[in-house]
Amino acid sequence: MKIRDRLLLAAERQFAEHGALDATLTQIRDAAGASVGALYHHFPDKAELYRQVWAHALTDYQRCFWAAVGDSADAEAGVRAAVTEHLRWVTENQYRAQVLTSARPPGVRDSESNREFMRNVARWWRTHANYGAVRELDFDLLYALWLGPAQVYARGWLGGEIVTAPIDVAPQLADAAWQVLRTERTDAQEERA
Prior knowledge:
Blueprint: H1 3-22, H2 25-32, H3 36-42, H4 46-70, H5 75-92, H6 94-100, H7 112-130, H8 139-158, H9 170-181, H10 184-192
Helix pairs in contact: 1-2, 1-4, 1-6, 4-5, 4-6, 4-7, 5-6, 5-8, 5-9, 8-9
């Protein structure tokens, strides 16, 4: 594994366990088995290292999320897949998930990859809304209704207040998301079937 990748992984764990303020570059460097020079060659300061760790975690999350949603057969499958994938990813990537629940560094939201992800998800949603399968909602409200309960649950689990792993409650939270996001037209179609 390349030294830059080792530094990112070590920093991810240190930031997750100690927080961005309390994690030290010495801890990160020691955990990665890297020299001072190697650390500063790749990351000019702790703020940039944190930004890179945060961006790396976000990119991984978005890649997995979009694969689940983008490959879905219909709106219901996509809504459920997104919630399930969110909870699976948090369960299997605890350090990255912990980083993403921390303060977002400047510039990440405005990155081209983040904008592209948001455009893809919004386009996917609008397509299904245009067919009447899901409700037409402002994206911020959609996000809160779709993933809000899953995020609250995951944060509780990451913080140690909840014992049951997020993936173990995925069916219930995916069902709740679908119930709130589907349209009356969808309900009527199910009654006729």
